[in-house]
Amino acid sequence: MSVSFRFLSLLLVTSALPILSQADIKLPAGVVAPITSEPPAATITPTPAPNPAPASAVPAQPAVPAAMSAEPPVEIRRAIAVEDTPPAVVPAPVVSRIVYTSCKVPAPVIAITFDDGPNPDHTPRLLDMLKARNIKATFFMVGRCVVTWPHIVKRIADEGHEVANHSWSHPLLTGLGNTSLDSQLQKTHDAILKACGKAPLHYRPPYGAIGMSQRKRINEKLGYSTILWDVDPLDWKTPRNSKKVEERILASTRSGSIILAHDIHGTTVDAMPATLDALIARGYQFATVSQLIELEKETSTTVAATAPASMPLLPEPTIPVVPMSTLPPETIAPAQPAKAVGLDN
């Protein structure tokens, strides 16, 4: 009887060993013990390792669903690639005009111009005054004077001034046919180019008078812009007075102005030192006509690029109608020798 009781006790203890053995094993955090139906071969109580077992040593576990989060899912947006950048707005091209009385510029820049020369007595004096002040001007020259004093023309160009066309003999161009008109400008163009090696880019019609079809013809044949003015000191009127010339120029000059003057009159040249110094004191900078036009074009391009809508076209300046009775007398210095100034019929 006692033997049977001992055998039964031993059997009960043996059957409880798998449960005790599994409870005593300490697994790394997060590792779920495998479920097995077979008891281990022996009761094992291993010493806990200081570090978790490598992943390769841990049997693969079934996926555990992640805990639900109360926060909404994060929206992932891709970066905009370079080619996805919105295309730049291309402004409409600025239409160039061919007639200028002044220019629209953002700075106090002006152009001073001298007509009817060169003159052997007054133009060299004027060039000295301009050089002393580092001022560049534009000279609208008469062809028959150009061929008579080509050395003055060369000095004008060599000192950085702009050479321009003022016809061959200073006639009223509106009274000429196409053949005579072409001759007046082409002969002067060739004479200036021969004298200084630079071709003019602009012309000024004598008395400021030119027909609509004429200005278009001149632009198409020679590429010239028609240059008029917005400041006129009336320096050709008699009696001539240097102080009046100075006062009229200072009273009318604005940023972008094109100033008209004549370097064939001694009183005009005499007025220049005080006039130029006063303009400089007021903060004006001097440019050639071409430089002033280029500054206007750059400004127009910038405005067009930043404007929300296309810019309206600027109207062409009105060409003045000059009655014959109001024209000044012929005041161009006589050209010599006569052979150099003969005009074709």
Walk me through the structure.
With 345 residues, this protein is of the alpha/beta class. The radius of gyration is 48 Å and the shape is globular. The protein is built from 10 helices and 8 strands. It has helices at 2-24, 123-132, 143-146, 150-158, 178-196, 212-222, 242-252, 266-281, 289-306, 338-341; strands at 99-100, 109-117, 138-141, 162-165, 202-203, 225-227, 258-262, 285-286.
Shape: globular
How many E-type strands? 8
- Helix tally equals 10
**Main sheet?**
5 strands, parallel
**CATH T-level topology of the domain at 100-321 and 330-341:** TIM Barrel
The poorly predicted ranges are 16-28, 31-47, 52-59, 64-69, 74-84, 319-325, 329-345
Strand content: 5-15%
The named CATH superfamily of the domain at 100-321 and 330-341: Glycoside hydrolase/deacetylase
Pattern of helices and strands: HEEHEHHEHEHEHEHEHH
Distance between the termini: 163 Å
CATH class of the domain at 100-321 and 330-341: Alpha Beta
Give a quick set of tags describing it.
345 residues; alpha/beta; TIM Barrel; five-stranded parallel beta sheet; three-stranded parallel beta sheet; 10 helices; 36% helix; globular; disordered C terminus
